[in-house]
Design a protein that fits this description.
Layout (H helix, E strand, L loop, with lengths): L5 E6 L4 E6 L31 H9 L4 H11 L6 E2 L9 E2 L13
Antiparallel strand pairs: 1-2, 3-4
Length: 108
């Protein structure tokens, strides 16, 4: 049986279409959306698996340049209020509210 490569769903009453595709998301054209944590951690290894989707973005799109992705995330979130969790022993300590857990980084 052949499987569809992609499909789209129009959200009724809104001007929004969501497209699900089975292509290599790293090599796709346009912007991509990736779920992440509320702290936007970028440390490969114990925190972020290099095999995860965000790990692949860090490795392949940013050439493992942690400073560059951290800078892009900081710029995208510059006007967002966050909380600091000083009790964390690893990872980033800045935490965003759940409803604001998004970061837009446009692919070149």
């Amino acid at each position: 049986m052949l499987r569809r490569k992609n499909f789209s769903v129009l959200i009724k009453g809104k001007n929004i279409t969501i497209t699900v595709t089975t292509e290599d998301i790293i090599d796709s054209k346009g912007n991509i959306v990736i779920a992440g944590s509320d702290t936007f951690d970028t440390e490969l290894g114990e925190i972020i698996s290099p095999d995860s989707l965000i790990g692949q973005v860090i490795t392949e799109v940013y050439n493992s340049n942690k400073g560059e992705i951290d800078n892009d995330i900081s710029n995208s979130l510059a006007n967002i209020n966050y909380q600091t969790d000083a009790t964390k022993t690893f990872g980033k300590k800045k935490s965003l509210p759940f409803w604001n857990n998004r970061c837009v980084i446009e692919k070149q």
